[in-house]
Amino acid sequence: MNETAKSTVKSGGTILVTLKRRASGERASVFAVLASFTIAAGILFYHVDRGLDPDLDKNWWALSFETRDPNSSDFTVENHSSATRFTYTVSRDGSTLRTGELSIGKGMRKTVSPTVPTDPGRTTVSVSADDGSKKEIYRER
Amino acid sequence: MTFLLFLAVALCIPLSGSLLFRGLFGRFFPVSAIERLAFSFALGVGSLDFSMIALGKAGVILSAPVMASAMFTVPIVTLLIRTAYDRYAPEKWKSATPKETRSSDDIRFSPTERKLFLLLIGLTIFLKTVFLADAGLPTATDLGHHMYWSKVIADTGRLPEYSKREIVDTTDGHTALSTPEPISDFIIGEHLPFAAIAGISGSSFFSAFPVSFLLLVNILSIVALFALSVRLAAFLFPGLGISPVSVGLAVLFFAGPLFAFSSPEAKFVSGGVVGNLFGNLMIPLVLLALLRSFIGNDPRFLGLGILLSLVLAYTHHLSTFVLSFILFGIALSLLTLSFRDLPALLARIGKLFLSPYPVLAIGFAGAFFFLIAKPTYIETHAVSTVVGTPSKATRVGLSFLQTSESAGVARMAIGLAALLIAVTLRKMRRSPAFPFLIGWGLALLVMALRPHWVFLNIPSNRIGTYLSFPFSILAGLFLAAFPILFRDSAKKPSGSFLPGQVFLFASLVLFSFSAWNGSQDNQSSLSDSGKAQETIEVFHASRYLADRSKPDDLFLKDHNYLVADSWMKLFFMRDYAYPLSRGYFKRYEDETNPREQCTLRMISVPNLPEGRACYDDLGVNLLAVNPAYDSAQFEKSHDFSRIYSGTTVQVYERNR
Predict the structure, then answer these.
(1) Which of A128, B124, B154, B275 has the fewest CB atoms within 10 Å, i.e. the most exposed one?
(2) Contact B207 A138 (CB under 8 A)
(3) Å between A5 CA and nearest CA of chain B
(4) Are A82 and A92 in contact (CB under 8 A)?
């Protein structure tokens, strides 16, 4: 083998060794940093998505008037709890106007449209769940 | 799918930065792969920020395709120009720029060091992920504030006007909402990357993407610190047989797993302290670039340092301010330690600055500043508010104990020991890297302990959080240099100052103390999980109101007892101060900073005349409060209807 060929082989070998060292050394560390971040971000997305799921590992429900219209008494129960049966009472200045039962599965909502007098007074909607929890909304007219 | 899209866009930032890096500095720029990663990310953020600002100022709507183009256009054009220059420029032009040579400037790991690096960085990321898995929900107040502005950009495609409406006293003794007043607390660079990621990937702000991106910034700041400590060690201990990588690993030990959750780390990530996190990435990178420029006499690094300082200036005011003090401290140390060779030193620095790269970088900075956009804090003249005699008890400086707690007790104790040793060792003192280390540490110590010496009027605890990085380096130097000092003394028994068993015991004590202190800090920082349900309820109530909101509604919520309340404004996107907020009670009693009382009165005493006057003056008609603390005062009043009832949030409407 002449000198040029030897030199070529030698420099080729050096480049290969350098590439191997780079790949197994510092660049592997860079790859490890990015790979670790990817895994960490994946875990965070998984956890936060679960945290923001209204039903997963959560137990709550909400009662609200369906509209902001002061003349409407339509109300909605949105259920994200383990309770499924709800009892409601609509009253006017302390007098009961209507009672009823609602069956609402987890993740579901139901709207009730009671008819109430239009004269001034306080309309109150009370809802009790079969787990003992209770909520109340009211509207002054 | 959302995760993959986020990941693709987030990783495009270092990719675009890498193209720009290569375009600006050529193929054989002497940086290691680890340095290249950190520099590329910082340049990628800078390129994205400046492109979006320029486009926004030119009236271009920042839609998703425009933002994607903004990410890559400048880097690709720069790379093409570079390629053309390399191929076609006359040789005499090229001789004016530093010679392009294949360099061997890698950070060389031994097999053990590589394993230790992977272990430490893996452990750091693992611990932070454990913390953030619980604390990563979009609930943090600061993160909510920042994401509002990012969402403004993503939704409207325009650069935001940083302003908000405030409650002010009128001349006739009433209160009113002001017209939007400029606010200087926010800087555009904090928000553009989030807007670009959300816009391009379609990621919701109500997801893990903001926290994940901040985690990336945080991880890269630790990588940058590692690279800086390796370079510092290489120049501090030449010929002493101390492996620079082992120093870097010791620094990684102190800055990574030990205090993984502490304030400038995972707590800042979950808390959304966006500017500080970017600052903690940029400051070590600027120092690394300046160190390598100064020691290697390479003006290209100086140009890089100037560019990164510019990125920081458009990203975070406090960090920019802190960096300027650090640079002043370094310059002072350099001048003091090189007093005898002052003319030569000044000539050398002058020559560095008068080279093409720094001149071009300064030219770009000047052109952007004067022709395109100034940072908000310059436009609103906010700088004068942080200079002067400290105006509050929280700004007169920290006690030594408070400073230690900010920096981490183990880091502070061992770092101070290292500082003492470094000052007494002539060989270290003469090292050109020494002024960088001592100037950095001492400048921050003065700012935190004695702010009045340098006429600083900002909360001292915020300065304290910047101490963790230089003291991690000092502590790492001590930990890595300790065995070498012992080995040298062991070779010469007459000069030995520590018998073998005492040394072993001392090393164990040192390691155990550091590990105990760091992990205890981690334990105390672990948050209680269980905010998820409360968060969901607050978001549900916000959505309920946003869907039924009318233009003339004015909404007030409570910040004391509602979880994630700062995120409520993202459902309305009407104004930074919409909904109005009852702030922390102590703020209404702060005599040094008197503030309006209406937001307090309208929730705390809605039925008293002063509460009613506020409602009448301002027209507030909707309220969200936590029923466990604030429902009785509304229940007994005929002025309010309860229109929404959840377990931890209730909404009231004032009857008209």
Answers:
(1) A128
(2) no
(3) 22
(4) no
